[in-house]
Amino acid sequence: MRISYEIRDRLMRKSSNTLGLCFQCGSCTATCPLSVTSSAYIRKIIKYAQYGVIPEDEKIIEILWRCTTCGMCVSSCPRGVDIPSIIRGFREILSERRTQDHRITETLWRLYEAGNPWGYGSGEIKKFRLNMKDLFEEKTSQKPDYIIYSCCSTAIDPVSQKMTRSIATLLKRLGFNIKILDPMCCGDVIYEAGEIAFLEEYAQKIFDIINRLDSTLITVSPHTHYMLKRVYPELGVKTNVEIIHYTQILKELIDKNKIKLRSSDRETVVTYHDPCYLARYLNIVEEPRSVIENIPGVKFVEMEHSRENTLCCGAGGGRIFSEETGVRLARYRLKEADDTGANMMTTACQFCVRMFVDEMKIFSSKYINNITDLSELILSRLE
Ligand code: SF4
Ligand code: SF4
Predict the structure, then answer these.
(1) Which of 232, 251, 270 is the last residue of a domain?
(2) Residues 305 and 369 reside in one and the same domain
(3) pLDDT at residue 140 tops 70
(4) Are residues 12 and 49 in the same domain?
(5) What is the distance in A from the centroid of ligand 2 to the CA of 70?
(6) 83 lines ligand 1 (CB under 6 A)
(7) Which ligand is nearest to the CA of 26?
(8) Is pLDDT of 134 > 80?
(9) Are 211 and 120 part of one and the same domain?
(10) Whether residue 246 is found in the same domain as residue 332
(11) Which residue is closest in CA terms to ligand 1's atom 8?
(12) Same domain for 37 and 54?
């Protein structure tokens, strides 16, 4: 074990100088969702950081890579320590020493070689264009009102594709001229892997495309939104293009009376899962609730953990690319949703929907019989 002031100072900077505030109370470990399935060691990790020591214990290194960067620990920390940034800082150091988690390395290689972290080829992009062809005229000279930036998973994941299709269909039915970008990785996995040099290079690639746009850009994924609005500007890569999350545009159009919604014959009790990045990192919590509450005949119920206190689905921090062993975090969230008595669970993130839809296959729910993205719910209720 070697104490390094250099490492400590580096992690201190990563944490925006909050590292020194930790007084080792352990609330972070107690509230971390990883504690549900194993020992989380978060307090210990912060202690290592305060000493500038790189952990060598395999169990602690495993936690550094299993952290979903959900931010729950920050909400519970009485001293406001930016724990996920310290964990990303450790990942950065481990990556520099080539002791990165092998699943992350493989994901980054796929991104490097295929241009996306899933490893699909150009054939999937062509299929995606064909699937979406009915929604926009590629050759029109008319400037689009909105351009949709969908997650890179949209090319191959039907759940993701359905979300983009719902948002696009909705806007088209309201008379807007839209364009859908080819699915493009936002770089979230590079950021979570701590590969900052690669991220800086990648940022240029994305912003070269974005800066050529002259319409409002609608993001589908909360992770994309966070990268474009917060992470890249902090790296000095900025744009003048307006960027808005799709839940914000839904609220805006409902408020302006452009979206008119109808009720359904069946009683619908809806609960909403706040995606961690949308709620804790971006503070977008009122918009989705306002959208749901405007649907006639829908009863909205909150889960025990909601808004900034939401529970993680297990996909963040690059974990969507790794298999979770044992009971998955999505199980606990589904149980909480079911306990509300709601028959529908909705959310606003392609990864959350994917995690819950998968878990639902082996979860015996009492009430929940439908998991859907908010855009699909609104489209199904459009007048
Ligand atoms: S909750 Fe905050 S103060 Fe308490 S141990 Fe964790 S980081 Fe330190
Ligand atoms: S960000 Fe989430 S998973 Fe990571 S240490 Fe904090 S509470 Fe645990």
Answers:
(1) 251
(2) yes
(3) no
(4) yes
(5) 5
(6) yes
(7) 1
(8) yes
(9) yes
(10) no
(11) 22
(12) yes
| Ligand 1 touching residue 40 (CB < 6 A) | no
Query: Tokens 């991220």 — which residue?
Result: 199
Do the Cβ atoms of 217 and 268 come closer than 8 Å?
no
* Residue pLDDT, tens place only, 29-55: 999 988 877 787 999 999 999 999 999
Q: What integer pLDDT is reported at residue 20 of this predicted model?
A: 96
> Which residue range(s) make up the domain with 315?
259-380
280 and 329 share one domain: yes
264 in the same domain as 148: no
Q: Name residue 31's beta-bridge partners.
A: none
For ligand 2, the distance from its centroid to the CA atom of residue 332, given in whole angstroms, is 15
pLDDT of 138: 57
| Residue 97 pLDDT exceeds 90 | no
Mean pLDDT of 194-206: 92
pLDDT exceeds cutoff 90 at 133 = no
**Looking at this predicted complex, what is its ipTM?**
0.98
Number of domains in the chain: 3
User: For atom 1 of ligand 2, which residue has the closest CA?
Assistant: 69
- Under the banding of pLDDT at 50, 70 and 90, the label for residue 326 is low
The tokens describing 3, both together, are: 């104490």
- Please report the beta strands in the chain, taking only residues with DSSP state E, as ranges in sequence order: 146-149, 178-180, 216-219, 243-245, 268-272, 298-301, 344-347, 370-373
Q: Which atom of ligand 2 is nearest to 68's Cα?
A: 3
* Whether 110 and 242 share a structural domain: yes
